[in-house]
Automatic annotation (TrEMBL), chain A:
Signal peptide boundaries: none
InterPro entries for this protein: 2Fe-2S-bd, 2Fe-2S-bd_dom_sf, 2Fe-2S_ferredoxin-like_sf, 2Fe-2S_ferredoxin-type, 2Fe2S_fd_BS, Beta-grasp_dom_sf, Diverse_Oxidoreductases
Domain of life: Bacteria
Keywords tagged on the record: 2Fe-2S, Iron, Iron-sulfur, Metal-binding, Oxidoreductase
UniProt GO molecular function: 2 iron, 2 sulfur cluster binding; metal ion binding; oxidoreductase activity
Protein name as annotated: (2Fe-2S)-binding protein
Record flagged with keyword Disulfide bond: no
Nucleus as UniProt keyword: no
Domain 2Fe-2S ferredoxin-type: 1-78
TrEMBL record, chain B:
Signal sequence extent: 1-22
Protein name in the entry: Isoquinoline 1-oxidoreductase subunit
Organism: Phaeodactylibacter luteus
Domain of life: Bacteria
InterPro entries named in the record: Multihaem_cyt_sf
Keywords: Signal
Keyword Signal on entry: yes
């Protein structure tokens, strides 16, 4: 079956044999976007988090057929090296990653959170950022999330169109 | 005088003790009146079938009384501290649809159905007796102002309710347990119960 969607701003269509194929495999193996990671395959760890129509989704548990007509964003489409997303910038400034494997999922979940809640409290972070990091970088991530919120607020102040 | 009283009191105590020992113990398998109600009569058969479904974990797990969705037959709190949130669908960036879609995902074992989410807080059934669940169900101030027709529709046609009979597999790939009454028998029992005026046995 053929599935058409937009990914990182580009229209894309893929041919898949089984519509229930996890979208993660389409992204990684057919579109060669390797930033989104496989962790548990059970929607439990969040390493595969992407944005579907702006909502955080764990794509290891998202059938590819459901992506028809959707706007998808992966870590590759969040920002650029020249203009990183505030969450990516904050991650760099706080030197968050250790091994780094789970970080794209955390960054995408955080981007989704800041889109809905530009100034999250520690409690908001605890409720929303529930991915798993085996290196235990949670403490640095918490600081980075607050920093990302501040960076995003600065961008909005400079250019309200970024709101 | 005291000796005379003891003469009668001791045999009386022995008699009472003997009677207590002779009484048959409560059967651990006796499920006829789990909430203190009288055993169901033939006229209450529909009620009994409906309530055995509505109080099954497949239904009650998403009717929590503490705003925390439950999982599994044991009704354990949902993974990752998921809670009701402001709109009944979790938190802003981690909500029901972060993992649950419109259908089951048999690769991951994540269940799904249209409008997956918690029942309203006013319909928290966990910990209630069958009679209390029935009262909550019929109470328009708690059930979203639903009359009989709307309730029948919800109970027999809502795909999220009927998901209970197509619950898919769990994370280990094992089929989830279905409610104890077959779907067709449950739907008939719902209609029969409302047709009889939705009586709640006391």
């Amino acid at each position: 079956m053929k599935i058409a969607f937009t990914i990182n701003g580009r229209a894309q269509s893929v041919e898949i044999e089984d519509g229930n194929t996890p979208l993660l495999w389409v992204i990684r193996d057919q579109l060669n976007l390797k930033g989104t990671k496989f962790g548990c395959g059970k929607a439990a760890c969040g390493a595969c988090t992407i944005l579907v129509d702006g909502e955080a989704v764990r794509c290891c548990s998202y059938a590819a057929k459901l992506a028809e007509g959707k706007q998808i964003t992966t870590i590759e489409g969040l920002g650029t090296r020249a203009q990183p997303h505030p969450v990516q910038q904050a991650w760099i400034e706080e030197v968050v990653p250790q091994c780094g494997y789970c970080q794209p999922g955390f960054i995408m979940a955080t981007a989704a959170l800041l889109e809905k809640n530009p100034a999250p409290t520690d409690e908001d972070i605890d409720n929303n950022i529930v991915n798993v990091c085996r290196c235990g970088t949670y403490y640095r991530m918490r600081k980075a999330i607050h920093r990302a919120a501040a960076l995003q607020a600065q961008q909005v102040a400079v250019n309200p169109k970024n709101q | 005088m005291a000796q005379l009283k003891l003469k009668y009191i001791f045999p009386a105590l022995l008699l009472i003790g003997g009677l207590l020992l002779a009484a048959p113990p409560a059967s651990p398998l006796d499920t006829s009146a789990p909430d203190g109600l009288p055993p169901p009569t033939a006229g209450n058969d529909s009620y009994d079938k409906v309530m055995s479904v509505l109080t099954h974990p497949r239904c009650i797990n998403c009717h929590p009384s503490d705003h925390l969705p439950k999982q599994g037959l044991e009704g354990r709190p949902h993974h990752f501290g998921v809670a009701r949130g402001a709109a009944g669908h979790g938190f802003e960036a981690t909500n029901c649809n972060t993992c649950h879609q419109n259908e089951n995902n048999d690769y991951s074992g994540v269940p799904g159905a249209p409008h997956w989410g918690l029942a309203p807080a006013s319909m928290g059934w966990q910990g209630l007796s069958r009679a209390e669940v029935a009262e909550a169900l019929l109470d328009r101030s708690r059930n979203g102002n639903r009359g009989y027709e709307a309730l029948i529709h919800h109970l027999t046609e809502d795909p999220l309710v009927l998901w209970a009979w197509s619950p898919g597999v769990d994370a280990a790939g094992q089929p989830r347990e279905k409610p104890p009454v077959a779907k067709e028998a449950y739907i008939k029992a719902v209609k029969d119960w409302f047709a009889a005026g939705a009586p709640i046995p006391r």
